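Hello,

Our lab assistant flagged a job as stuck in the queue for most of the afternoon. It eventually completed. Since we weren't sure the result was trustworthy after the delay, we are filing this so someone can double-check. Below is the sequence as submitted and the structure that was eventually returned. Let us know if re-running is recommended.
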Amino acid sequence: MSTEKKKALFICLGNICRSPIAEGVFQKTVNDMGLGDEWEIDSAAIGGWHVGNSPDWRALDTMKKHGVPYNNCARQIISEDFNHYDFIFGMDETNMKDLKTRAPRGSKAKLLLFGDFDPQGDRIIRDPYYDSDSAGFEKCYQQSVRCSKGFLERLAAGELNN
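-- returned structure --
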């Protein structure tokens, strides 16, 4: 018996820093749990500035350092995403506001702040794009690890059912 895949989309402003890290980490987390074939995972941007580009080199370096494979490129969220995905995760309050504004009425995706699943309570995944070093990317990685596990634990416990 085949069950339909669960679908998760990770969103940030430009889809080259935070959301690719979140996407890569979430994919690695479900793969490590033996659940990789049960998920369809992607990321996208609110804005279209970086469409078609690879992630920021600091994001790629951070993922490589932690053994997180990644080969996707930036795209912008489209209205169909709101009915294709089960879960759409924003990285900060501005992302969430933008997602709620763009979501078609009655769309199926649950719009969730990724940081709400951090057991340490660090709710906002800050944009490290303008930082002069990679520390913010490392922090984003660590938050994504905690949030991925936290979300999957709550999903398995049935806490996110309609």
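-- support follow-up --
The delay was a queue issue, not a problem with the job. The result is valid. The first strand starts at residue 6 and ends at 12. The CA atoms of residues 53 and 73 lie 5 Å apart.
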